[in-house]
Amino acid sequence: MSKNVRGGFKWMAGWLVSASLVSACGAPADEAQVEVARSSQELSARDVSVRISSDKATLGAGETVAVTITLTNDSRHPVKLLKWNTPVDGLEEALLEVTLNGEAVAFTGPHYKRPAATEKDFLTLAPGESLSRTVDLGEVYDLSRTGIYGVRFEVASQKLQSNDMTLWVEGRASTKPSDGPVTQLTSSISYTNCTTTQQSTVLQALNAASTMANGASSYLNTTTPSGTPRYTTWFGAYSSSGWGTAKSHFTAIKDAFDAKPVTVDCKCKKSYYAYVYPNQPYIIYVCNAFWSAPMTGTDSKGGTLIHEMSHFTVVAGTDDHVYGQSGAKSLAISDPASALDNADSHEYFAENTPSQQ
């Protein structure tokens, strides 16, 4: 959540559609990613159309809530799409806006922290070409209540929006992924699907995360609340309420590492850092990029675990608004409230690299 799971986007020739400032736990944006973001803002909303559909309008509790998403390149030129902002590999992000009686329904899928996007993370649609995938809405959205659900695909930053669709769905229990046997190593740390070597590395990373979380909490509790460089860099203009929010978040993050039953699962083979399911504390899934990250410092193993721990609803309930240090710094300036809700902002505040007071 995803830590869900934490360089810049390469410029692609031709038109580019990407939500580089929303969705997914990513790595530093840097100048190239900022340039992509600027260029993608100029795209016409008519370049790519999106349509969602379902074979059934009424679904019982035992039925899969299957929704088909189709993206079509309506332009006369190729377009490149960031894969995780499409359904090509399933719903890895909250690409669907789901409501019940006008109220937003929670996305219960994984929150990822990813390395910087490279060419392999994009797909190309030729003029007139379509991409279509059918997804199970119940796997990643809370459909526990019976009623008429509204569904729409939307990536707001790129003005990608589908038709609106309604489905009558009978409430059903959420499903938890099967993780396999859990090995208890200490009173508060367990492992699943980890080799002995991986267990040793994860234990070091948990210790590093705990040290950083305790340091961040101590800073916020002992420093006179004000617009210090460390605070304003990651959380924006000082306010007493903002400082209080950051302090409460890091108190909860610190306490989770110090006293909660944390389980680390090493089964993920994706190229990402890690991910979590926000409503399933305190299980953190670490992926391939986690193992090559430094133990401390920017986008570190310890920082990744802080990023993911902040995602849990019972901890800080953070989201992923932007990724990377450059994006986080810009967010702090433009939208301090979102910075205080951004997982990478919490990670960078805790890592404190380069060091600021």
Shape: globular
In whole angstroms, the N-to-C terminal distance is: 28 Å
Along the chain, the helix and strand elements come as EHEEEEEEEEEHEEEEEHHHEEEHHHHH
Mean pLDDT: 86
Task: Point out poorly predicted stretches.
Answer: 1-43
Main beta sheet: strand number and arrangement?
A: 6 strands, mixed
Residue share in helix: 25-40%
| Rg of Cα set | 20 Å
Structural class assignment: alpha+beta
Number of strands: 18
Q: What are the main properties of this structure?
A:
single chain; globular; disordered N terminus; 6-stranded mixed beta sheet; 357 residues; 18 strands; alpha+beta; 10 helices
Description:
With 357 residues, the chain is α+β, with helices and mostly antiparallel strands. Helix content is 31%, strand content 22%. It contains ten helices and 18 strands. Strand 11 (147-155) and strand 12 (160-161) form a beta hairpin. The two termini are 28 Å apart.
Structure, briefly:
The chain is 31% helix and 22% strand. It has ten helices and 18 strands.
